Amino acid sequence: MTHGEGRSSGDQGQWRREPIAVVGIGCRLPGGVRSATDFWNLLDEGRDAIVDIPEDRWSRERYYEPERTPGKSRVQRGGFLTDPIDEFDAAFFGISPIEANSMDPQQRLLLEVAWESIEDAGLRAEDLEGSTTSVFTGGFTLDYGQMQFSPNPAEAPTVAAHTATGVVMTMLSNRISHAFDLLGPSMSVDTACSSSLVAIHLACQSIWNGESELALAGGVNLMLSPNFTVAASTGGFLSPTSTSRAFDAAANGYVRGEGAALVVLKPLARALADGDHVYATVLGTGVSQDGRTNGITVPNGESQRLAIESALASAHVSPASIDYVEAHGTGTPVGDPIEANALGVAYRGERAADRPLLIGSAKTNLGHLEAAAGVVGFIKSVLALAHRHVPRHLNLENLNSEIDLDDLRLRITTSPADLPVDGPIRAGVNSFGFGGTNAHVILESAPAPTDPEASPTTPDGSRRDGIAAILPLAARGDAALAALAGRYSDLVAAEDGTTALVRALAHRRSAHRQARLAVVTGSVAETVEALAAAAADMPHERVHTGTALDDARPLAFVYTGMGPQWWGMARGLLQHNSVFRAAVQECNAAITPRIGFSLVAELLADQQSSRMHESVVAQITNFAVQYGLTRLWESFGVRPDLIVGHSAGEVAAALAAGALSFDDAITVIVHRSRLQHLASGEGRLLAVALSEAEAGKIPEVADGTVELAAINSPDSVALVGSVSALEAIAARLEAYDVFARLVPGDVPYHSRGMDPLEAEVRSSLESLAPGCPRTPLYSTVTGARVAEDGSQPHDAEYWWRNIRRPVLFGAAADAMLADGAVTFVEIGPTAVLGRSIGETAAARAATAASVTSLRRDGDDAQSFAAALAQLWVRGIDVDWTPLAPRSAARALPGYPWQRARYWSEGESGRRDRLAKTVEPYLGNRTEGALPAWRRLLDGTAPRSLADHVVHGATLFPGAGFIEIAAEVARDEYDATSCTLVDVTFEAALLHRGGTYLVDTSLDAATGRITIHGRLPEASRWVRHASATLQPAPSVGTRIDVGVDPALDAVDQVELYRAFDRAGFSYGPSFQLLHDVRIGDGAATARIREVAEEPVADRAPILEPSVLDAAFQLLLPLALRRDETARLLPVGADRVVIHERPQGPLIVRATAHPDAGDPTRIAGDVTIATEDGRVVVEVEGFTVLVQSDATAPQRVGTDWVYEQTWEPQPADDGERRAATGTWLLLADDTGTAARLAERLTAAGGTPVLVPAGSVSDGAVPPGDRTALSDLLDRTVPGEGLRGIVHLWSLDRDHTSPADSLRWTAHDAVLSIVHLAAELDQREIAAPTYVVTAGAQPIGGAMSDRGLVQSSILGVGRVLHHELKGLESRLVDLDPEDVDGSIALLADELAISGSEEDQVAFRGGERLVARLYPSTRSGGRIPARMRADGAYLVTGGLGALGRLVLVSLAERGAGHVVVTSRSGLPPREEWDSLTDPTQRDAVRTVRAAEAAGASVHVVAVDVTDATALGAVLDLLLESGVPPLRGVIHSAGAVEDQILVRMTEEQVDRVVRPKVLGAWALHEATAGAPLDFFALFSSISAVIPSPGQGNYAAGNAFLDSLAHYRRARNLPGLSINWGPWDAGMIASLGLRELYGQRGIDLIEPETGMTLLGELLGSSEVQQGVVSAHWPTVVTNYALTPVLVAHLGRGDDDGGGDDGSVLDRLHAATPAERPSIAADGVRHTVSQVLRMAEEHIPDEEPLGRLGVDSMLATELRIRLEQHFGTAPTIAFLLDGATTVAGIGAELLHALDMTSHDAEVDDLAALLADLNDDAVAALLTGAETTDPTAEAPVD
């Protein structure tokens, strides 16, 4: 059966495309695999190449987490290469170091593997240049490209000129094509894991389609960074056990592997014709796609089957003919059964049950090489076919239950399996991409090799056809060449012979590389010795070395003349070389009939019978030898570029050049030798080392007795004459030490002794038919090049001159040198002319090499081999086929790459990848304008931190923050000693696995160090700690280390048990105290020496466990006060590090006396050496004694709000008939009149009452009596249908200054009186307060709108105090009042609406809502000017004092404070006794201490004239111009509207309105940066009892908009209640908390003030509230905030609240429901997707700080009706699961929390003084009211 024929009747069809041969393999794979042989050995031995992730790839400690964690992988092992992947032999490929640096190592690796595959194929890369060889490579990941771009934006990317070509996928293939000058298709393929098998498919198609004559195909995959490993692990693709268990029940993912492999493909017929070694053949290929599956990575068994069937159809073979299939076999529980079933369905067919299809996967050996996986399986299958043996499939213990091998007719090769020994065998290869691209290839075993041996070889392989075997080695440089020689030395020694080596030379075809070495082989020992010498760079007679020249040609053949002949010349070649012998025999056949003797016999005669001394024999045999050598050189591919012959040698030279035919050459040499022989005995030749001129001076030459026979070089001639004359000359020359030697022979060549022969010479040669030289020919008759046009024929005339004239060899050689000849080969029996050539070259300052074909003193086999070697190492191409015909051979040593490191990566990226850390706790510096550092707390962190467990959580110790600060001093200032002051621990850092980012920054100007942290996926940074860095004291201190007898010894074990009971469950690394002694307020102990953890370049300065041990000594002193308290360290006043503590240490602790604050305990700690030298001092180390009762708990979630207006059509509202009496408090602009018309038309009876004097029939707005009389007259018995207040619309014709009485007085009183009268009459009629342009919608505010504004505030309160009025604010469109009347009329008809504020704009109905502010105006805190002044009204009130100090701290140079009463003179300040005044003085002094000049001014800010005068006076006194105004003055006098008096209105509203307007006017010319008005949240959110206050603040709000509309600075802040003033003094926090409102802490408020002053906002509300509670406390829910009261969803989606689901659930179900609800709540707080919040992840690691814990607590209470304490959330089991468990424990499922009762119930809990103060308004609960100071 011939190759390619089917094996069975089942093979499909009769025709099949020509198989494609696999002739070369190059691979670098895990397990140290560097060749196909290595790979087979690994497979055959059943080795597992999976190893730990190398340290130079990435840090396992940093990137490993056993659980699936964002940013981490679950694997620690993989299939990695053993060779460095950052090294490359760039010079070999002619690539500059700078370009190599930018090249993806995958490109580099492929270049080397491509070379190795070409070598393995026995090809020369040079022979492929310019051919249509194609390259198809698979690629997938591009790690190196990612490395070029630093993750640190401050670090310049490592992008260079060659990066663009160095990191892209296309260059994986294109780089090979470029390097080897391949012109066929070049394509990089990315189909993920099937890439390389798809590449092979494309390569085969390219060959079959005729696009390519040869193809390189394969793939590459390198794992340079952890990124894709992390991604694949996160995606669940990778095995967490790092074990490839293909088809096993325990399969849990694949193991990543890396490497590169290429195969060389060519048509089988051509491969066989070329004598290539064929591993196997490709019969067919197929590719398919999965299409849409359940997921893009979910395989499709049907599509896999289609790929297999496509490949079988392409191969025209039956499924049953396949013996083995290399499976994809990734080892996934989903993919394995799908593949196995697809294989079974596709291949089962007619397969007999007793002949199951063998399957296996190399992934169990190497891992999954992804883009290179397909070619790896391909090569494994090729080798299995070649060896007819399938290696063992590893790691299969229990078959996946979804795979039925018997039914599928499959057998997994869990033990090695032999394949049939006879006939073709076949295999299939599977490969699937995780994006759905499937590939399959059908292979068949190679045809049986044929033996190409045709010429004899010695048994040991050292000679072939009479020529010594030559081992030619080439490399890019000498070092590589020596290494290569060493490898071959080992090979020859191992083979115990050179036969395999010789046979393998056909497969080597040593390529053209500059550094060359050729060894003329001998015996095994001789060859090993020679190679070893070459490896050691030692000379050896068999070793020829050289540097191949690009200009080694022109090559000249030099045919020697008479003289070098000898009796045994060329005998070895004649006897043993077929080419040489055939040429000589050809001569013999032509010559013998003419001369009567056999030249072969003469060449074989022994020395005694040899006639070589006879001219006729010598010339003829010399010619035959030269002819034979010419043919022998030709057989090795060596042909001359130039030719010259010396004397008789010109005959063979003319024949070689084409100037004579073979027959003519025979004619010439026969007659020349015959005739010259006639002159035998007439003289001889003498070779002398003289120039022509010097020879001419010899007397015998000068007188003609002796002639010049030849001029061989500038320093070498031959003389001819009688023997006696020549001997005399020789004797004289030798006396002068001049070389002179008689030439063998007795014929006087080239002298007058030839003259008698002329006639016969001419007649004998007259029949010649010379031709034109085909190769440049140089004449030694003329000393010049022979014309190529035939004008200088080699006829009888020429040959007579050849015989008679001197030989001008020197001139001819010079002409050849002039024409560029650099290499000369002597064609003759031995070396004779090399010296002359050298001398001629030297004379013209040229260099030339001369090689002789044979040497008299050498063996012909060795001599000619040496000549071949010398030419080749010089750079002359040699065809080694005669010595090594192409045949199958074992693999040869690979090229010894001379690699150097080439790597490009940003420093920060390198540090992250390798987890290289400078400082152990501080980490590495990050680039930026300010000094900053980052440390990742992950697997690279000190493992001892896991032992710091406090209250059930693994906390980063406070001592660790101190160490971080100390390391700042070292890294920034090179200081190992320092002082840290104001050390503050602000938020706990939970450390329990995973990764946590710790960023540290230093303000070099102030020395302030701040430490922040967050989880990588969290968006919020948490500030954990801060400290101020100062120098350490220059002088150290000492302490007495003696034992204080007053202290009691404490057992160490019992001590740590007590700590554990208190919540401090320290592990071994933090149990360092021993010899502990404790007394009253003091304690001492010793600290055990700790072993260093080498986690960074540097060791810690102050090991945290050591300092923490010192802090631990304070715990017993604190616990003596309260054994049940939770102790949380909050900081230290001062820490001094004198030096790095080392060795055994002593620590002393002293507790500070009780300062009266039960929530804090402080103490000092000193650490000293055993001799008393203090190394660390800590002063004022403070812990917080926390209990649920003392922990303030915020109820709100946001701080800043803003009012927006949103459309709400009235179309769907219910309408009520207009019939009845309408009281219209009418304007005089016509609006009321037109409204009346509409009401009348609708059936109503409007009564219009204008504002004005009673005498005019009108009602004065502030006259309650007149209003009462009006109502008595107009209200019918059945009551009113409605009341419409339109009096505000009259305010459109006067300026604000003229109309402020209305704003500050009449407007408010008109509502107050109306409310009282309606209430008194029990009239409950819908009431509408109408304005036009009073609402600042879109930022617009006119004079008219500003004047109307106060009525908005009181109108909002009216809605809530008198529910029966259903009052509503209606703001008409100021740009279209007329058009608004129709909308107003419709609004009056709407019933049942909850809206209390409506506005019309552009024909659209708008309603008001309150939302958390977007803060679009920015949050940059304002900084004050040192050269500016700032005015604060009410500056000595509770809030004003905070503002005063804050402005000073923010840089204000001058602050002007207004107060109604001011302060006494400064000289009286120290003697003041009034507490309020003393507080004011302290505040002024604090502001001045902060750098401000404070000016306290007593002035009534409502008096514009007085205020202006004061400001002018200040300017005159040198106070800089005002840069900012803060109007915080005000008063509160709460009263419900029906009881409010005119005086109460004036006392509250006038200061707000008139004072603000006075400030507006007085500062009109000032260059203000801000104009801030302290309003109240009650102006926005109705507050019953504060109608007057709301009215005044509403004006402030509008004034801000009014100013901003005129391009003036304006800001109104609607403050909520502050924890200041009487609210603070009365302890009303709990009261407000029960109402759902947080008090504004002074620090928080001033921070927000700074942000708002620096923003472009106009009006912002500042309040923190639990809106459901707030809304509950309203009898009538304000629709403005009702949506806030509904809160977020309860975490349960659409299937009921979490409480409902908990009620309905079984006890077993409740934990998961609770955890889901908690997770949903946490996701809302963190704005983080729920899937990123594992049940067991500590929330502190997710970024939950104290503020977010507060918000979390609020939301948990909203959803669950109960919530853990803040302390629990921060310090307890703060995981989702832990919180869920806590809630279930605390939750009473059968009862409900009581609703919060009304305000009266809350007030019942207050003492009498507090109640009286609240009700009488002696001091306001609003912070903007000014407190009296006199």
Automatic annotation (TrEMBL):
Signal sequence annotation: none
Stretches assigned to the PKS/mFAS DH domain: 915-1192
Name the UniProt record assigns to this protein: Carrier domain-containing protein
N-terminal hotdog fold, as annotated region: 915-1036
Keywords annotated in UniProt: Multifunctional enzyme, Phosphopantetheine, Phosphoprotein, Transferase
UniProt xrefs under CDD domains: KR_2_FAS_SDR_x, PKS
Keyword Repressor: no
Domain of life: Bacteria
Every Ketosynthase family 3 (KS3) domain range: 17-445
Catalytic residues identified in the record: H948 (proton acceptor), D1108 (proton donor)
UniProt organism field: Tsukamurella pseudospumae
Span list, region C-terminal hotdog fold: 1047-1192
Annotated ranges, domain Carrier: 1712-1787
